[in-house]
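Propose amino acids for all 342 sites.
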C-alpha cells in the first residue's frame, strides 16, 4: 500500500486514510512506515496556516478599532497572551468555548495577575470575539455570562509632593491655540502651506473640545452632536456613554471649522492628532512660549485641574471625566497637584 502522506492535512486525516485499508496487517505496516519528520512537517504546516489566518483576523480587528495608539498596543499584547495559551492547549481560535474562557481566567489568577489586569485582558478578548461574531466568523461569542474578576479600586495615597505632572496654565493654552489659528490662516499654495492649514483647521475644534470637557483622545472619533438640543455624546474608556451640553463658544468653533454635523470626527485617528500636536508644542517649547512639549492628554489634565479649582465639586468632575469612582478622581487630582480633596 502506498501512502500519499503529503496530500493529507492532519493526523486525523492520515489515520482515517489508513483505517480504510482492508487488511489489518497492511494498516500496521503502513503505520510503521510513517516517519516522524513527515508527521511534524504536516502539523507544522497546518499550524502555520492557521496562525496566518488568525493574525489576519487580529490585524483587521485592530484596524477597525477607534482607539488610541496606546490602547491598540495594550489590546494586541493581551490578545497575544491568550493566543499563546490556546496554542499550548491545542485549542483553535474558532473553537473557543465559554469553559475555555473560564479556564483562562483561572490560569491568569494562578499566574499572579491582578484582578484589574485580568479585566483588561478579558475586555480586549471580549471585543475581539464580538468583532468575529459581527463578521460571521463565529456563531456566538464565548463571553456570554462570563463573570469577570472583581474590580479593585486603589485607595488614594496622600503625599507631600506638590505636583507630579506638569499642568499647562491658561497662557500656555492660549499660546497653543494662537499658533493653531496662525497656521489655519496661513497663506500660500505650496503643498506645505496647504497641509499646515488643513492640519490646524482639523485640530482647533478637537483641542477646544478636549480642553472644555476633559475628553480623552480616544473619545473624539465617537462624538455625536445633537444640533437641535445643542448637546453631544461620546463613548469613554470602558464603554461609558458621556453626554455634555454644548457651550456657545464651542458651537461657534464647530461651525467656523465646518464641524457642525452629527459625526464630525468619525474619520479622525488619534495617531494623527498626536503627530501634529507634537510638532507644534515642540516648536513652541523651543521658542520659550510654553514650558513643556505638551501632549493631547495634557488638555484633559488642564481641564481637571481648572474645573476643580473653580467648582470644588469632585463628584461632578468624576462624572465628566468618566471615572469609576471619586477615589480614582482624587488620585487623578493629586497627580496634577491638587491636594487634600477627600
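Proposal:
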Amino acid at each position: 500500500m502506498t501512502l500519499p502522506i503529503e496530500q493529507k492535512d492532519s493526523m486525523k486525516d492520515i489515520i482515517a486514510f489508513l483505517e480504510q485499508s482492508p487488511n489489518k496487517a497492511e494498516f500496521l505496516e503502513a503505520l510503521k512506515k510513517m516517519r516522524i519528520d513527515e508527521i511534524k512537517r504536516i502539523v507544522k504546516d497546518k499550524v502555520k496556516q492557521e496562525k496566518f489566518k488568525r493574525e489576519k483576523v487580529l490585524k483587521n480587528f485592530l484596524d477597525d478599532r477607534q482607539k488610541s495608539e496606546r490602547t491598540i498596543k495594550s489590546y494586541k499584547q493581551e490578545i497575544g497572551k491568550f493566543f499563546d495559551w490556546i496554542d499550548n492547549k491545542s485549542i483553535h481560535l474558532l473553537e473557543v468555548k465559554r469553559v475555555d474562557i473560564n479556564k483562562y481566567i483561572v490560569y491568569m489568577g494562578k499566574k499572579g495577575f491582578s484582578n484589574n489586569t485580568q479585566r483588561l485582558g478579558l475586555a480586549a478578548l471580549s471585543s475581539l470575539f464580538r468583532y468575529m461574531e459581527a463578521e460571521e466568523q463565529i456563531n456566538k461569542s464565548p463571553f456570554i455570562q462570563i463573570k469577570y474578576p472583581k474590580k479593585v479600586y486603589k485607595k488614594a495615597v496622600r503625599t507631600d509632593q506638590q505636583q507630579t505632572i506638569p499642568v499647562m496654565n491658561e497662557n500656555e493654552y492660549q499660546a497653543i491655540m494662537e499658533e493653531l489659528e496662525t497656521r489655519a490662516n496661513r497663506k500660500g499654495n505650496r503643498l506645505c502651506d496647504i497641509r499646515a492649514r488643513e492640519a490646524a483647521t482639523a485640530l482647533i475644534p478637537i483641542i477646544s473640545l478636549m480642553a472644555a470637557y476633559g475628553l480623552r483622545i480616544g473619545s473624539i472619533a465617537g462624538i455625536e452632536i445633537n444640533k437641535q438640543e445643542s448637546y453631544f455624546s461620546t463613548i469613554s474608556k470602558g464603554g461609558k456613554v458621556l453626554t455634555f451640553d454644548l457651550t456657545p463658544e464651542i458651537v461657534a468653533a464647530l461651525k467656523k471649522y465646518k464641524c457642525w454635523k452629527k459625526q464630525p470626527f468619525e474619520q479622525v485617528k488619534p495617531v494623527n492628532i498626536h503627530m501634529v500636536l507634537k510638532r507644534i508644542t515642540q516648536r513652541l517649547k523651543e521658542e520659550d512660549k510654553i514650558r513643556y512639549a505638551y501632549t493631547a492628554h495634557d488638555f484633559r489634565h488642564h481641564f481637571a485641574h481648572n474645573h476643580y479649582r473653580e467648582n470644588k465639586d469632585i463628584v461632578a468632575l468624576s462624572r465628566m471625566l468618566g471615572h469609576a469612582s471619586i477615589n480614582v478622581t482624587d488620585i487623578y487630582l493629586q497627580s496634577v497637584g491638587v491636594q487634600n480633596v477627600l
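The chain is about 60% helix and 5% strand. The longest strand covers residues 231-235.
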